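Inputs:
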Amino acid sequence: MATDRQLFDFLLRLADSDLVLAQRLGEWVGHGPVLEEDIALTNVGLDLLGQARLWFAYAGEVEARFAGAGRSEDALAFSRDGGEFRNLLLVEQPNGNYADTMARQFYFDVWHQLLLVKLAHSCDTRIAEIAAKAKKEVAYHAERSADWIIRLGDGTDQSHARIQAAIDDLWMYTGEMFDPDETETVLAEEGIGCDVRTLAPAWREVIGSVLDEATLTVPAGTSMQRGGKNGVHTEHLGHMLATMQSLQRSYPGAQW
Amino acid sequence: MTMERSEWPLWEIFIRSQHGLAHKHVGSLHAPDAEMAIKNARDVYTRRNEGVSIWAVKSADVTATAPSEKGPLFEPANSKIYRHPTFFPMPDEVKHI
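Outputs:
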């Protein structure tokens, strides 16, 4: 029987991956390669931020069941340390150049879409409702990032080299997405979560066909980094949180 | 030797709104190709649920009148008052004309 603490942990994973990636995309504001792309990528970031809020709100309610009081969305986002974050290592990786950003987005979007399609059938109605809303937004994200992979891969020699390098560099952070731990296993068995291992074949198929169309090579590496789901992060997360949380850390509870 | 274009081409964007039958010109944007022009238009011009359909046309493919031809093209119409039905007496009951 899954405990509320496990459900809380599961919700944080969904919320944190959305929040951290939204923050990364926010770093591009005003720095996009062209105005249109600046707006489009920021839209994706705002979609993810909106989804993070829904997951945080639910997480706070679940936390209240076992801890007496649940934290607010803001408290969960701005007052936890890096070790308490449960996001995937992939999404905390720095923006790099535009190819790095798009490769990260592409790997995540395809997985995210597959996951939400499954979660839309969760027997936890709240999870099912949030996933049903989010999956429409994410379907567009996945389409957009695949478009970019194809255009960069099948573009100039320089864009091809950059996107192939980005695809290769980030590959080692993709294994974690399909590697369930005890929390996920228990929730999957009860029909609340989903068995992430079952997402892998469809994910590989989409990645393979898009990279193929983009004249890119699917990385062959099998050595994967993991730890994000349990709070063991790369050095990049702490720096990002320092920026993201500085205002609430300096002026706790500040509102405007 | 030909100069390589480093800028994306410009596209004119037309959107059909929820209530309108015709696509209306809303503005222009840059995009590398037609498909991305549609996607960019979605993000730039339909953020507030403005439209149900988008057209993108390469600005270079639009043939326009030149400002210098304004006189010959449009002025003759002004003197042909019979084309402007402004002197028909309208019954008071008829509204919205």
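Remarks. Chain A has a mean pLDDT of 96. Chain A touches chain B through ten residues (CB under 8 Å).
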